[in-house]
Amino acid sequence: MSNSTAKIGTVYLVGAGPGDADLLTVRAARLVMNARVLVHDGLVDPSILAMAPRGCRMVSVAKQRSRHTMKQQDINALLVREALAGNDVIRLKGGDPFVFGRGGEEAEDCFAAGVPVQVVPGISAAMGAAAAAMIPLTHRDSASIVSFVAGQCKGLTDQNWAGLAGVGRTLVIYMGVATAEAIAEKLMADGLAPDMPVAVIENAARPEMRVVRGALAGLGAVVADNRIKSPALIIIGEVAGRGDMMELKKVAEMAA
Length: 256
What we know:
By secondary structure, the chain is an alpha/beta fold. 29% of the residues lie in helices and 23% in strands. The protein folds into 2 domains: 11-123, Tetrapyrrole methylase, N-terminal domain (Cobalt-precorrin-4 Transmethylase, domain 1, 3-Layer(aba) Sandwich), CATH 3.40.1010.10; 126-247, 2-Layer Sandwich (Methyltransferase, Cobalt-precorrin-4 Transmethylase, Domain 2), CATH 3.30.950. The chain contains 8 helices and 12 strands. The strands form 3 sheets. The chain has a 5-stranded parallel β-sheet, sandwiched between helices. Helix 6 packs antiparallel against helix 7. It is elongated. 41% of the residues are buried.
């Protein structure tokens, strides 16, 4: 078959959600169960990978702070190469591929190479973690604005976060474990009250999930003292204290 008539595969950017396989969308589950080539992040739960059929070729491109299995440009090239070879590729990402998932970068490189792309949204880490911890990101009495930021990125100290957190607002920070103390100092320097409630959710929607709470001024200590490790999400705002009350109420109702 000539190159002009060779089949080009499709790259599916699929959100795997926060961890629990039950939180996959129906379409995401169907794609995984029929995958021939599956490229996945390290945050994808093993129970989801186990759904792939026998014979599926899996490629891990797991990333950790300061240690990447594969650089992003190499991941992009891998997706393009597999698709141009005629393979449909399931690119499985934790959370949602277009929320701090670098899905946009991968899609751009695929389009530039003439490779078709389809995006399958997933429950984002913020939505999944908040729900699992029973923390409402919005509440008529507490918050009508929600902001998502990356706490571990280039030029953290140069970013202007003023106004993103405060009364009536919820700030959700991805990838903020390593910079938690600096984040707290930055927000307080911008005028946020030191006693603003914070919640740190580790391994959201998984059996080993932990939720620890405190005040903004002690955010660094909360992370250090509890030895919080990624994946973890930080929620800052009045709603961060609500989950605790709702959880206590649920426990009381179960005991009654």
